């Protein structure tokens, strides 16, 4: 009980969890009254409160009626024959739907119009390993820039879209730091949904264009992401937002589950083995917590050996509420006003911050941050060593990996997976000034010789 009270206090800063919203959703519009019988989300058996454990029927709700804690999807997992399950997965499509038996989606999900993200490359990064002093064969980059809209967000949106379909929504929406808006716009276009997405007005051009090009509505909000999120929470509780599925608000429990597929893929691609260490970026912290959930499920299902692993979180110094709390030994995350080039990670009041702290501490990992200059250096390091052009969030994870190795916190002799969650083409400004033509010459051999570039 004491622990419960403490947890409740830790979460009190969360603006989106209003009792008003929850009550109107559950009692008057009754999705949870009817959901239990009519909604087919595969192995998902309900929602459970992460704080007090209270169970709810499947529906577009996201906060506990009793304690306002966040809800997450609970499952009837296919426990029993791990070998049969592994074979079933391996025979599935080369995208996230190969893991459909472990996700809140109907069994025939692969037949529905969806962008089918996932099964991105796990790159053995030998050149980067050499530069960072990591043992040969031990360093991997999970490169999620290979998704349909070039960020990991396609995974979570694909899940939320299936939930939106199941609950009868026809408009898909979100508050976004940039990548999510593009992923929602594209998924809605493919599935024949309307979309209306909200972003801070001052995002990078690459993100704005990616969000607008798919033909849905795109609204710039004068404020930062936390302002956008607060606005969306109000919209959900208002008749103006009636019938809208906000992927990261009222569909958040389902959305989050998409990140589990990163855990599944990494383990499958390592030959059904757990990595020893993972370095994961933190915006709201959803991705990090769900990767941990996915790893725990694989252990429970007997698909990987049960052994310890360490989870490291990565933030930008200019928006580092979680790493600040980690280093101070706090279990409360104090909100910050973001100021960093890593805009996709610029959430000053991260909803899952306290859970990230729990996971980093439980697994023996850490949360660290790097400044803008180190982010740029890390983007260029990854590009020059492995031919992977990461967005600023990838600069954050690679930069933090380097820093953790130098600090002796990350063991360079163990299998380590570093996430690159987005594509450098969306954040060109970060490196444009220092990535220009080596020389500009007349089209003649003499000019080329004079430029001193012949090898
Ligand atoms: C959204 C995002 C993340 C992580 O987001 P969480 O809110 O922590 O789940 C990481 N990288 C990129 C590029 C993103 O767009
Ligand atoms: Zn609760």
Automatic annotation (TrEMBL):
<keyword id="KW-0456">Lyase</keyword>
<dbReference type="GO" id="GO:0004794">
    <property type="term" value="F:threonine deaminase activity"/>
</dbReference>
<dbReference type="InterPro" id="IPR004450">
    <property type="entry name" value="Thr_synthase-like"/>
</dbReference>
<feature type="modified residue" description="N6-(pyridoxal phosphate)lysine">
    <location>
        <position position="153"/>
    </location>
</feature>
<dbReference type="InterPro" id="IPR036052">
    <property type="entry name" value="TrpB-like_PALP_sf"/>
</dbReference>
<dbReference type="InterPro" id="IPR050147">
    <property type="entry name" value="Ser/Thr_Dehydratase"/>
</dbReference>
<dbReference type="GO" id="GO:0003941">
    <property type="term" value="F:L-serine ammonia-lyase activity"/>
</dbReference>
<comment type="similarity">
    <text>Belongs to the threonine synthase family.</text>
</comment>
<dbReference type="GO" id="GO:0006567">
    <property type="term" value="P:L-threonine catabolic process"/>
</dbReference>
<feature type="compositionally biased region" description="Basic residues">
    <location>
        <begin position="1"/>
        <end position="13"/>
    </location>
</feature>
<dbReference type="GO" id="GO:0004795">
    <property type="term" value="F:threonine synthase activity"/>
</dbReference>
<dbReference type="InterPro" id="IPR001926">
    <property type="entry name" value="TrpB-like_PALP"/>
</dbReference>
<dbReference type="GO" id="GO:0009097">
    <property type="term" value="P:isoleucine biosynthetic process"/>
</dbReference>
<feature type="compositionally biased region" description="Polar residues">
    <location>
        <begin position="17"/>
        <end position="37"/>
    </location>
</feature>
<dbReference type="Pfam" id="PF00291">
    <property type="entry name" value="PALP"/>
</dbReference>
<dbReference type="GO" id="GO:0009088">
    <property type="term" value="P:threonine biosynthetic process"/>
</dbReference>
<feature type="region of interest" description="Disordered">
    <location>
        <begin position="1"/>
        <end position="39"/>
    </location>
</feature>
<protein>
    <recommendedName>
        <fullName>Threonine synthase</fullName>
        <ecNumber>4.2.3.1</ecNumber>
    </recommendedName>
</protein>
<keyword id="KW-0663">Pyridoxal phosphate</keyword>
<dbReference type="GO" id="GO:0006565">
    <property type="term" value="P:L-serine catabolic process"/>
</dbReference>
<feature type="domain" description="Tryptophan synthase beta chain-like PALP">
    <location>
        <begin position="117"/>
        <end position="422"/>
    </location>
</feature>
């Amino acid at each position: 009980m004491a622990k419960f009270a403490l947890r409740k206090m830790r979460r009190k800063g969360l603006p989106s969890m209003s009792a008003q919203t929850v009550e109107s959703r559950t009692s008057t519009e009754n999705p949870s009254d009817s959901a239990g019988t009519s909604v087919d989300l595969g192995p998902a058996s309900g929602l459970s409160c992460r704080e007090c454990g209270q169970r709810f029927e499947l529906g577009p709700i996201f906060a506990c009626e009793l304690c306002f804690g966040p809800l997450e999807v609970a499952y009837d997992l296919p426990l029993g024959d791990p070998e049969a399950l592994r074979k079933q997965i391996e025979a599935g499509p080369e995208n996230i739907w190969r893991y459909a038996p472990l996700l809140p989606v109907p069994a025939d999900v692969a037949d529905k119009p969806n962008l089918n993200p996932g099964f991105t490359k796990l790159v053995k990064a030998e050149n980067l390993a050499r530069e960072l002093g990591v043992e040969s064969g031990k360093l991997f980059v999970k490169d999620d820039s290979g998704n349909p809209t070039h960020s990991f967000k396609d995974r979570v949106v694909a899940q939320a879209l299936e939930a939106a379909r199941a609950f009868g929504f026809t408009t898909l929406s979100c508050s976004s730091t940039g990548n999510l808006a593009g992923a929602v716009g594209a998924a809605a276009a493919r599935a024949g949904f309307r979309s209306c997405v909200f972003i801070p007005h001052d995002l990078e051009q690459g993100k704005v264009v990616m969000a607008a090009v798919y033909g849905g509505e795109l609204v710039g909000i004068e404020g930062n992401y936390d302002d956008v999120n607060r606005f969306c929470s109000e919209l959900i509780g208002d008749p103006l937002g009636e019938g809208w599925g906000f992927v990261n608000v009222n569909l958040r429990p389902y959305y989050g589950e998409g990140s589990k597929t990163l855990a599944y893929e990494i383990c499958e691609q390592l030959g059904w083995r757990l990595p020893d260490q993972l370095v994961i970026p933190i915006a709201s912290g959803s991705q990090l917590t769900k990767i941990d959930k996915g790893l725990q499920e694989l252990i429970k299902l007997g698909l990987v050996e049960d052994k310890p692993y360490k989870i490291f979180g990565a933030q930008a110094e200019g928006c580092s509420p979680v790493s600040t709390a980690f280093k101070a030994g706090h279990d409360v995350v104090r909100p910050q006003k973001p100021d960093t080039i890593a805009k996709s990670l610029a959430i000053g009041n991260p909803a899952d911050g306290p859970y990230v702290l729990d996971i980093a501490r439980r697994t023996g990992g850490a949360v660290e941050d790097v400044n803008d200059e180190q982010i740029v250096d890390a983007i260029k390091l990854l590009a020059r060593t492995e031919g992977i052009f990461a967005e600023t969030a990838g600069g954050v994870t690679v930069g933090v990996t380097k820093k953790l190795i130098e600090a002796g916190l990350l063991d360079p002799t163990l299998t380590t997976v570093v996430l690159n969650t987005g594509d450098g083409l969306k954040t060109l400004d970060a490196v444009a000034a220092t990535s220009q033509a080596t020389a500009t010459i007349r089209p003649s051999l003499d000019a080329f010789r004079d430029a001193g570039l012949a090898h």
